[in-house]
Amino acid sequence: MEFERRFIGMDTLITIKVVSDKPPEQIDAIINQSVENFYYVEHVCSRFESDSELMRLCRHTREPVPVSPLLYHAVSFALEVAKESDGAFDPTIGRAMELRGFNRNYLHGQSISSSFADSADVDYHDIELIGDRYIYLKRALVIDLNAVVKGMAVDLTANAMKQAGLANFLINAGGDIYVSGNNDQKEPWRIGIRDPFHREQCVGIVCMRQGAICTSGNYERRMHPNSEESHLFKPNTHQSPRGLSSCTVVAPFAMLADAFSTTAYVLGLERGMNKMEELGFDCLMITHTANQFFTQKFKENLLWNVLIDRSFEKKVFRQNALLNIEKC
Amino acid sequence: MSRPSSKWVALCTAAIGITYAAGYVVTDQQNSLASNASVTGTHAQESLAKKHQNTQKDGQADHRSNSANTKYKDGTYSGEGMNRIGSVAVSVTIKNGKITRVQITDCTTSYPKSKIEQLPAQVIARQSSNVDHVSGATESTNDFIAAVTNALSQAQS
């Protein structure tokens, strides 16, 4: 039987699907326990709560601060991605994000303004790790872990579900997806990649039994409705890249797919694709002109499936969905 | 999948493994900077209890500096709102004056798939007949904000 749970966390819609023969009460209990990871990660790593562990860390400059293993590893991972991308990914953009208007807590609407961190030219070299427990900020800055922690919460949740004995499940945190095992048809999970230009449609489908897929794009979070500027921008110029509409990365962990879809998007078509080939992550980029670019093994590895009839109207789309569901 | 660089796989295996094994740990820096003590726990329920204790401590500390954080009364409130999906109902849980849970009430309990027709049509449409789920740029929660605001208005103290 298939079970589904939906809730709101980390400013997005989170869906968990489980296929299992275990009794519903047991599944419910496992899901309840597992989703604690989402609340925990948000509680520790939110940039929008002045008393999150992350924001308390940011208010301590030039002194070593002991942090929880979660915060330590989230920051450590973000710094590794920053090094790998030569700064195209940079976790010190928090204050710049606030100034771009990404400063409101989505739940109660209060905004945050970290004016203590107004020195404009900080970068990831200003964060140092000491031992395996301390973080040292050389200058006043706001750490932004939003391209890491959603994936990390997905990975922790997936880990908890596996430990609890579930083999077949899907976790979708607003498009950041991890799958394990099979769907209720006893087939690999089928994940559609959203068409950035016709958002009710997909450009194609990938099939996966194990692993994560994440898409970064400029079409859900704009600074203003008609602006080209979004939450994705180059740390050095503070401008959104212009060439790409979306970038999808497949990786063994959601935190990898999450961070590297953002990184590759910011690196742009050529450098981004080269970096993904180098690291061995399958990647699909869609340009502003709707051209699609794939890493060499993408289609083969993921049984890429282009929807044959892409002209389906919403109505037909909906009816098919209902029919299909009733059949199960 | 291609062969992802082993460095990154090792890094994530360690990060997730260690974080998971550590359980729900929130270091209270105000305290630990002074006394170098931190709150630790295991993955069992007791750790959750400790986490909540810790949250409470933070909440009290805030009470002095920022009254905005204590404007909600503890409890669970439901709210409804209209949006492009249709009508949406949520339940918002407040603990220690803070929002701790937002569940979508018509979908929160597990149910067999045969009941899924009751979901708003567009939610189903977005998933399409051919796919289990869709990967796209992170969707915002704008569609649910009216319902959340509605619930929060009841929680105002």
Tell me the name of the CATH homologous superfamily of one domain in chain A: ApbE-like domains
- End-to-end CA span of chain B: 53 Å
| Main sheet makeup of chain A | 8 strands, antiparallel
Count of folded domains of chain B: 2
Strand order of the largest sheet of chain A: 1-2-6-7-10-11-12-13
Residues in helices of chain B, as a percent range: 40-55%
Give the assembly state of these chains.
Answer: heterodimer
- Terminal CA distance of chain A: 10 Å
What is this entry, summarized?
The complex is a heterodimer of chains A (328) and B (157). In chain A, 33% of the residues lie in helices and 23% in strands.
What does this structure look like?
- The complex is a heterodimer of chains A (328) and B (157).
- Chain A has nine helices and 13 strands.
- Chain A has helices spanning 24-45, 53-58, 69-84, 94-99, 149-163, 254-267, 269-279, 298-301, 314-327, and strands spanning 2-9, 12-19, 65-66, 127-130, 134-137, 168-173, 176-180, 189-194, 202-208, 210-217, 244-251, 282-287, 292-294.
- By secondary structure, chain A is of the alpha+beta class.
- Among the domains of chain A are: 53-137, T-fold (Orthogonal Bundle), CATH 1.10.3980.10; 188-327, T-fold.
- In chain A, helix 5 runs antiparallel to helix 6 (254-267).
- Chain A has an eight-stranded antiparallel β-sheet. A three-stranded antiparallel β-sheet of chain A has the order 3-5-4, with helices on one face. In chain A, strands 8-9 form a two-stranded antiparallel ribbon.
- Residues 308-328 of chain A have low confidence and may be disordered.
- The longest helix of chain A is centred in the first third of the chain and has 22 residues, at 24-45.
- Chain B is α+β, with helices and mostly antiparallel strands and 157 residues long.
- Chain B has two domains: 6-69, no CATH class; 73-155, no CATH class.
- Helices cover 42% and strands 18% of the residues of chain B.
- Chain B has five helices and four strands.
- In chain B, strands 1-2-3 form a three-stranded antiparallel β-sheet, with helices on one face.
- Classes of the chains: A alpha+beta (328), B alpha+beta (157).
- Chains A and B meet through strand 1, strand 2, helix 1, helix 2 and strand 3 of A and helix 1, helix 2, helix 3, strand 3 and helix 4 of B.
- Strand 1 (2-9) of chain A pairs antiparallel with strand 3 of chain B.
- Chain B: Residues 84-155 form the FMN-binding domain.
- Chain B: This is FMN-binding protein.
- Chain B: Residues 1-21 form the signal peptide.
